[in-house]
Write a structure and sequence with these properties.
The chain contains 3 helices and no strands. By secondary structure, it is mainly α. The protein is elongated and about 40 Å long.
């Protein structure tokens, strides 16, 4: 293999890994969004006296906080794209808005 060909193969491999990493973080963002939605739903229902939701919302809070911690580490290591960071902020606003309903 010539030097030029090696360079092209290495360059393309690096790009593919970066895209795979981005899709991994997109999946974490999907999970984070789903946990926040479920948490908000159960939190509001628990406020109205729903016993099932009263037992579920602390579990959902624990789950979304675990994913949030992982995303925060990724952000600090600059592993998230700008679009993904905006998405995290948007999801976090859902939590804030749920408390002020």
């Amino acid at each position: 293999m010539r030097a030029n060909e090696k360079f092209l193969v290495m360059e393309n491999t690096g790009t593919a890994k970066h895209n795979v990493g981005n899709s991994k973080w997109d999946m974490y963002l999907d999970d984070y969004n789903n946990y926040v939605k479920e948490y908000n739903k159960h939190y509001l229902m628990a406020q109205n006296g729903d016993l099932r939701s009263l037992s579920l919302y602390p579990y959902m809070k624990e789950k979304w906080e675990a994913v949030k911690k992982r995303l925060l580490k990724a952000y600090n290591k600059k592993m998230l794209s700008e679009r993904q960071v905006r998405r995290v902020v948007k999801i976090n606003m859902k939590v804030v808005n749920a408390f002020f309903k």
